[in-house]
Batch of 2 targets.
Target 1
Amino acid sequence: MTTYTLRSASPAKTRVDTVVVGVVTTGKGVELAPGAEDVAAAYGRDLRPLLAHLGVRGKAGETVRVPTHKAIGAGMLLLVGLGDQVTPVSVRRAAGAAARAVTNAASVALALPADSPALVRAAVEGWILGGYTFTAFKRDTGSDPTGPGTVGVLSPVARQADAVRAFEEAQVVTAAVVGTRDWVNTPPGELTPERFADAVTALHREATKGRGGPPLTLTVLDETELAELGCGGILGVGAGSSSPPRLVELSYRPEGAVAHLALVGKGITFDSGGLTIKPATGMTTMKCDMAGAAAVLQATFAIARLGLPVQVSTFAPMAENMPSGSAIRPGDVLTMYGGRTVEVQNTDAEGRLVLADALVRATEVQPDVVVDVATLTGHMVIALGDRVGGVMGTPEVVDAVLAAGEAAAESHWPMPIPEDMTERVRGSKIADLLQHDWVRWGGGLYAAAFLREFTAEVPWAHLDIAGPAFSSGGAVGEVTPGGTGFAVATLVEYARSLT
Ligand code: BES
Ligand code: ZN
Ligand code: MN
């Protein structure tokens, strides 16, 4: 366990094992970033030749360790590159790189630029997220699995209320992002729908234990209850698996709520494609297909911990998409919750089927707005890559989500829902709606058009996070390999924007 403090101490005098300072590139070469003035002063005229000898370039993500030989209070100085700009994005990224470069330190001071609440937040979030590792299944966790015992964030505004709030909120939000990453990284055989729901139940118990906990209520619907309700989408997708599906409904009802937000998240614990089976390589990362459900659930717990005055009703349909003798077939017709029928053409387009039931459930609680989050289509990955999410839906809600993403330092991009998509979605010859029509172009937009049919004209946004939910490469800044926790911070920021 690491303890975090926010302090206004001098980075040159503070007695810690390692002090982290930023390096920026300017027109004149490299220099230490704001926050490190005292360290620069302590080195005086030796600083320039030292940086030159070490070959410090100040590139984003660059880290260089320098033994201080008592030049300053800390035994080790870690220089971390910010690139040519000091922004929340560059500080978050540098703090993330720093968290991985610091080793063998029981105490650390972060002296990155932090003279505003946004930068304090960036330093804390970057450090915690960049240092994330998933070791639950490693026997040999390496030498330094737990990280330092104390991390002090040094900031000239450490005593200002808004900086303290940013510092505390950053810890709540990152805990939710870490929780999302853990769920996504858990092997799919360990995180069946039932066990995913159990994990949510355990978290709910933890979040509400004792007196004065937040007003959170949880319901887990099992396959029998889903059948009684007529949730044909969730049951249909889950029909091929020997692990039965679940629908988790979590609600947060604070007193004096000023708005009511419904969240819906895709919770496919493993997506083999079903009978429309995926090629082997397309299946390897498909444990990530519950990232939307993980994000909306964790965001709801974070919103409750922060005490935001927004009522939140969260729906997470969970199923495993498997091929078997009991699986649904292309050509089958499913009756969704609420009675609409859907002709299935591709069992690998399963996300929209489980989301349809959950969206109808969500509109029934009469929210002001619905936001769904889903690793829905490979088309969105082709269009936007693996760092940017696509946002579709009611223009005002899309704009507000984009603004929240900006504040949360997550990249989202608006995508359209062309009108002809709706005609095609309504074009089944034997059912009310057609799940899929095998036209490859714009498949992510067709999926959104399909989902919109279930929103009952409630203002709505759909976040397709198929790209950014999971990182297959190495660590970069605050993004670590595996589940990224993408969308959690945006959702918390969006809820805050409703207040
Ligand atoms: N879970 C996948 C989408 C996905 C792809 C997530 C890549 C993360 C990374 C989804 O269920 C799926 O299989 N979508 C199909 C949709 C198609 C059949 C219309 C796809 O992407 O091919
Ligand atoms: Zn899927
Ligand atoms: Mn699929």
Target 2
Amino acid sequence: MLAQKETGWSVPDVCLNFINGKWVGGGAQLPVINPTNETVLTHIAEASAQDVDAAVQAARESFEAGEWAGTDLETRQRLLFRIADLIDQHSDELAWLETTNIGAPIAQCRARHVPRAAYNFRFFAEYISQIRSDAYTQLENYLSVVTREPVGVAALIGPWNAPIALTSMKIAAALAFGNSCVVKPSEVSPLTAIRMVELICEAGLPAGVINLVNGSGAVTGAALAAHPEVDVLSFTGGTATGRAIMSAAGRNLTPVTLELGGKSANIIFADADFDRALDGALLSIFSNNGQQCLAGSRILVQEELADRFIEAFVERARKLRIGDPLLEDTEIGPLATKQHFERVHSFIDTLEADGCELLLGGKPCEGFESGYYYEPTIVRAPNNKAVVCQEEIFGPFATFQTFRTADEAWAIANDSKFGLLGYVWTTDYATAMAAHEHVKSGVLCINSPIIRELRAPFGGYKESGVGRESGAACEAFYSEVKTTAFLTGDVPLRKLGMGGA
Ligand code: NAD
């Protein structure tokens, strides 16, 4: 275990706001709680509407000054690579901060979340050197050239469940295409975003290009979403918040991307590779303590396999190592907040009325004096109407249903207000192709847990989101497209105003 005093790493006494190159205070101080022991880790200085305005103005001025927006490609790339290197150099510290703040097991933060943050910067550094644009010559005597320019000020609002991995994607993309930005981390989990901004400044980004405001959604987030000087807004979080943000941004005609919730079906056919499907199903629901938008939380198993598969799944889930997330071999840590812990537990009250059978868990873990530890929970539901099959629970909480035919599986999978991910396990090529055709989700993984290919779009159908994130999708979102028509030949113009006096 990495104790703070042994490492020299620390949590700031107060998390300040970063505006125009300086860390400054805010209004109210809100506590940030350590989910492992329920002590106050630090406080955030909540940015008021005026503070948010100052951050947006700083971003605007830096953008207009062109110190970053106007830099050449090599300079921009060098800086993005340097940020990635600094993240790598501080990976142990960043993983420690993330785990301390949100309770995700340190092994997962170190192996996945932090390397992903570094990779995001490398990916976009490489991507921008390959951008192509169109030229049209079909119109006689004209050359029409399409180019892209940075949009301006990007507002980047992040969630608490995987802050460094998700917020770094937004920052890397916004900066790579030459924008200035205002980052708003979740009030629950500001620590890695703050440290990342420090590293970005150490890498040499000019003052004002990146700003960070801390605070609640109701005060700081709402002020940022409604700010008329924000040119684009990228949000990852819950669906209800996404609606509020889109309405606020809509009043200013600010384009948004929304990466929202999910209730993804994980469909296991009788012909699947049993062991691989079992490993994949466990990973899909229990990684990150189950707090993942992409969780395969609705497991559908073909009838003839169901009893054997569910039994094996329950046995493995029973053996998950629950404990202090800073311990290397911990597989499940505490949920991120007390409020969230209570919400997850509240779903147990719906089981009886929906005719669900509780197979494992369903209660807070015993043996912990403090911390928001919740038992891995498994429920067998009679049908997809059960509340636990419809609502995103966002915890270590899996539901099982059975199906007979592939058509029935697709129908259950698509009977959801969400459409973020789908997972299908089969050794039959035709079934895999049919899944590709029928499952309504933004991403579909065949015989694999989530694989995030940054070149390919990530995002959701239906209430799982608006827009996508990928190299090309971010290029389209974080830059304005301009068509310039050059006259190349002799085109006589109609003469106006040649009438008699
Ligand atoms: P949340 O919606 O509560 O908060 C997300 C962010 O929005 C926070 O920074 C919060 O302060 C801010 N916010 C809240 N109200 C606001 C308002 N009115 N205006 C502006 N900002 C506001 O979400 P969360 O609980 O932090 O994250 C969990 C949710 O995020 C889950 O639903 C999960 O599925 C989703 N998520 C989606 C993806 C994806 O890529 N699709 C990834 C991770 C998480």
